[in-house]
Amino acid sequence: MLITINICNVVYLHSNNISQVDMNDFCPEGFGVKKTYYNGISLFDNPINYWEVEPATFRCVSNRMAVQFGNHKK
After folding, report:
1. 42 occurs within a structural domain
2. Which InterPro entries does the annotation name (predicted)?
3. Which of 15, 22, 59, 69 is the most buried (most CB within 10 A)?
């Protein structure tokens, strides 16, 4: 679904039990692949830590302050 959208302002993925984010989940690589550009991605209340995610995962985000993690209680 996200790949078919050309411009997306903000994606809220709150409380979805996301424990892993791969490098091509938000910005797929490849020749002829349409990229979606984001103004914000929020992974609030998911069991993932920011230090477990490669920085290049969010290369299609407008700036580094546009990504939110945090406040997951085990």
Report:
1. yes
2. LRR_dom_sf
3. 69
- Tokens read off for 13: 């993925």
Q: Report if residue 74 sits inside a domain.
A: no
Record the pTM. Answer: 0.74
Separation of alpha carbons 42 and 11, rounded Å: 6
Domain that residue 48 falls in: 2-68
C-alpha–C-alpha distance, residues 62 and 74, integer Å: 31
The confidence score (pLDDT) of residue 22 equals: 92
How distant, in Å, are the alpha carbons of 45, 46, 47, 65 from that of 74?
10, 10, 8, 25
Give residue 18's identity as a one-letter amino acid code: I
